[in-house]
Amino acid sequence: xxxxxxxxxxxxxxxxxxxxxxxxxxxxxxxxxxxxxxxxxxxxxxxxxxxxxxxxxxxxxxxxxxxxxxxxxxxxxxxxxxxxx
Length: 85
Description:
By secondary structure, the chain is an alpha+beta fold. The protein has two helices and four strands. The radius of gyration is 14 Å and the shape is globular.
């Protein structure tokens, strides 16, 4: 975040603790990382719920976390969207 001149204090952690909240928020499992409401690696047709999330890295490997490049791209897109407004 500092490389993109973003304030790390702007990170909002949210606890989703019921299936109803998961469905309401479109929560696909933990961890879910969103930038300005957009999932950094939005999967197709995944059910919402209280589960562990699995990501696919850009090199094809499976990971419990999204690829760092996907997070960076999400942050850059948010900056571009903000500047373009």
